[in-house]
Amino acid sequence: MSSLADTIKAVRTVLLLQDKLAELTRTVEHQGARLSQLANAHSDLRDRVSRLEGVIEGAAMAARQRRIEE
Predict the structure, then answer these.
(1) Of 52, 61, 53, which Cα lies nearest the Cα of 69?
(2) Model confidence, pTM
(3) What is the model's pLDDT at position 70?
(4) Distance (Å, rounded) from C-alpha 9 to C-alpha 1?
(5) Is 1 helix (H, G, I), strand (E, B) or coil?
(6) Nearest to 14 by CA among 4, 6, 25, 26
(7) Within 1-70, where are the H helices?
(8) 36-62: b or e for each residue (b if 16 or more CB lie within 10 Å)?
(9) Residue 60 gets which letter from DSSP?
(10) CA-to-CA distance for 32 and 38, rounded, in angstroms?
(11) What is d(CA 2, CA 9) in angstroms, rounded to the nearest whole number?
C-alpha cells in the first residue's frame, strides 16, 4: 500500500507543478505584454522630446539671428 500512496503523492506533485508552471507562463506572457507597452511609451516620449528639442533649438537660432541683425 505504501507504493500506491507514493505513486499518488508523486502524481499529485506533478499536477501541482503543472499548475504552477501554467501560472508562471501566464505571468511571463503578461509581463512581456507590459514590457512591449513600456517600449512603445518610451519610443513615443523619445519622439516628443526630440520635437521639443527641435523647437527649442529653432527658437534659440532665431534669437541669435535677431541679435546679429540688430
Answers:
(1) 61
(2) 0.63
(3) 67
(4) 12
(5) coil
(6) 6
(7) 2-69
(8) eeeeeeeeeeeeeeeeeeeeeeeeeee
(9) H
(10) 10
(11) 10
pLDDT at residue 58, rounded to an integer: 94
- Written as nine digits, the cell of 5 is 500512496
Four-CA torsion 53, 55, 59, 60, nearest 10 degrees = 10
- Amino acid found at 67: R
pLDDT value of position 18? 98
Q: Can you give the residue ranges of every domain in the chain?
A: 1-70
Task: Give, as one character, the DSSP assignment of residue 70.
Answer: -
pLDDT digits (tens, 9 = 90+) for 7-65: 999 999 999 999 999 999 999 999 999 999 999 999 999 999 999 999 999 999 988 88
